[in-house]
Amino acid sequence: MFMSLKQALPMSAWYMILSALGFSLMAACVKSVSDAGIPVLEIVAARAIVSGIISYLDIRRKKISVWGNNKPLLFVRGSVGAVTLIFVYYSVSTLPLAESTILQYLHPVFTAVLAVLFLKESVQRSTLICIVLSLIGLGVMVAPNMQLNDYQQMPYAWLSVGAGVLGAIGSAVAYVVVKKLTKTDDSSVIVFYFPFISLPMSVALLGSDFVMPTLPIFGLLILVGIFTQVGQVGLTKALNCDDANKATAYAYIQVVFSALIGWLYFSEVPTLTTIMGGGLVIAGALVNVMWKR
């Protein structure tokens, strides 16, 4: 039933852990930049510029076509990713971090369903256990910070919640599309189509709402793009190594990274519920990688 420890950590797990770390650092930067008054669409555009440059240089290094092979599906991936990013950033910038985190981590559930419907993959028992334990862990970690009564007092709060849910669904769709694309296209090309679509879209929607960032905020905007690239490349490679629904279950480790970053850099001491919830998340991840059935 259980594999040896050496066999229990497939390459997809390491790639997804790297991806989770990148996205955790990105979220910290996005929150800081948004609090400084930078519009969400401007953050999306800045991320697209940095990610686009890095992706393009990587494609040139590999000496492959920047346009890829499955162009229609690549365009779908870029479009879905761009819209999803706007939803997610809007949710993060307008809701407390705890609530937005819960909404973001609905995506593995949607991914598992979509993988069964469109990729004809089977959901293993270990993946289901991982999802259940991880969702319970997330609830334990953030429930004490949930202030549901505030929703009636916050302007556009339910719009923010709806954006978070749509972002989770969009992420699941993007993961399934990426899984299909890994059979025909290089990971760098797949990643490149994200900024290729999101940059013109965000700039067009931003219009005259551009805010000139200060030098420190400009640096954070660049880091948003860099950490995003780390997350995207890790995610794409993880999906290329394993079933979509199983690989994305490793993404829950991002919650633990976020707690550690908050403790080390923002002096946010983890509460007992954070430790308990993190333990459930880790337990779910271990079940997913060590239990073969």
Automatic annotation (TrEMBL):
It comes from the Bacteria. Residues 13-142, 163-289 form the EamA domain. SUPFAM superfamilies: Multidrug resistance efflux transporter EmrE. This is Membrane protein. The lineage of its organism: Bacteria, Pseudomonadati, Pseudomonadota, Gammaproteobacteria, Alteromonadales. It is found in: Membrane. One of its GO terms (cellular component) is membrane. It is a multi-pass membrane protein. Keywords: Membrane, Transmembrane, Transmembrane helix. The keyword Repressor does not apply. InterPro entries: EamA_dom, EmrE-like. The chain crosses the membrane at residues 37-59, 71-90, 102-119, 126-144, 156-178, 190-208, 214-235, 247-266, 272-291.
